[in-house]
Amino acid sequence: MGLFDKCYDYKVSEIVKAKGIYPYFRPIQESEGPVVLMEGRKVVMAGSNNYLGLTTHPKVKEAAIKALEKYGTSCSGSRFLTGTIDLHIELEEKIAKFMGKESALLFSTGFQAGQGVIFPLVGKGEYIFSDKDNHSSIVSGNMLSAAAGAHVVRFKHNNMQDLEKKLAHAPEKANKLIVTDGVFSAMGSIVKLDEMKVIAKKYNATLLVDDAHGFGVMADNGKGTVHYFNAVEDVDLIVCTFSKTLASLGGFVVGPEKVIEFLRHKSPALIFSASPTPAAVAAASAALDILIEQPELAVRVRRNAERVRKGLRESGFHVIDGQAAIVPIIIGDDEKCFSIWKMLYDEGVFVNAFISPATPPGMQMLRTSYMATHEDQHLDFIIEKFVKIGKQLDLLHHHGKHPKGTGHKVSKTPPDKIKV
Ligand SMILES: Cc1ncc(COP(=O)(O)O)c(C=O)c1O
Q: Which of 68, 106, 63, 69 is nearest to 88 (CA)?
């Protein structure tokens, strides 16, 4: 057996491509946010994490351009050595203040932030309690800690009884970290932080929340899931990304200064990787300024998601309930998921197809997500196209509540006529 045999044997993507329903790596040629150009035609975007729609905001673009002109294209090194510029420090101070924590540390991606915080903190003989549905960056940090001798215990998704049962089995004196997503990226569900913070205290465990999908969305000030639960004092560390609300590329952790200082000197993901580029940092900083000035954007993105959630649910789709910007529609089968994805794409709507192992079997879904800059005409167009396809494929009978599936009034505007 050669190392590459598994690659030559891997046929799944080719089979799906041959059927013309392959949904991944589709290039976007231009983007205005809610509407993008793909294969030369306009498509309404219902799958982006650009939650506040700031990637095309003039102030964000201008900040990136100015930074590029002043500092060049790259810092060419890690934060530790030659890769720190004053913009990094300024943004760290601004983020820490905004989040109500002592100190912040920037990483080059959100993935590196999650992985890069867990591994240095949890080692031999110590325990990690991790939600089964946590993001891959957390899983990666857990695996590195496990290799260093930590015990990694997974608890059932958002199941506080299971978490408590597992904590109770661990040695009382052992150091323990509980790690969870704030808003879970596939299902859009929100961590039961009210209960979790009490359990963490009872078992003297440190609490880490990855709020990639909650930051800028949850809480009326946009400060995220931890603030939504009024739990800033109870959560020790918050990890986040720039790639969603902050319209850029990078990540951060906030927490006690002594912990951040330790991570600054001990996190391989920070020390052995080049720092976020000047343009990326300036863009994130300008996006944060906009969130601080216009917290109503967080309210708007939740309202937009709710409009679609309600419209699709009332039309008879199997929609997972939630409060954040993610609206998953359960399809339940890989090929059906891809076929519906293609039908929607042909109708001018782009969504994300999630199949197993990203979802449990039977929960294959079209995961949609919304932006503060979607207008009602975009949202209604998305609903209209879902309903059209749902009727064709007889999908509109979830819970038998709306068997005819016409619960929502929608516009008839094609995507190239939608004003942007
Ligand atoms: C919960 C969560 N954490 C971390 C990340 C990684 O963020 P980044 O894209 O900045 O690497 C993501 C991105 O999808 C995420 O959903």
A: 106
Determine if ligand 1 sits within 6 Å of the CB of residue 111.
Answer: yes
Fold assignment, 56-293: Aspartate Aminotransferase; domain 2 (3.40.640)
Looking at the CA of residue 251, tell me the nearest atom of ligand 1: 10
* Cα 49 to ligand 1 centroid, rounded to whole Å: 10
| 211 within ligand 1 shell (Cβ under 6 A) | no
How many angstroms separate the CA atoms of 362 and 366, rounded?
A: 12
Q: Active-site residue numbers?
A: 185, 213, 244
Write out pLDDT tens, residues 357-392: 888 889 999 999 999 999 999 999 999 999 999 999
| Assigned CATH topology for domain 14-45+295-417 | Aspartate Aminotransferase, domain 1 (3.90.1150)
Instruction: Determine the atom of ligand 1 nearest the C-alpha atom of 112.
Output: 11
Q: 149 in the Ramachandran plot: left (φ > 0), alpha (ψ -120 to 50) or beta? A: left
Amino acid 101 reads K
DSSP at 292: H
| C-alpha to C-alpha distance for 330 and 158, rounded to whole angstroms | 19
* Cα 110 to ligand 1 centre (Å): 5
The per-residue pLDDT for range 311-329, each reduced to its tens digit, is: 999 999 999 999 999 999 9
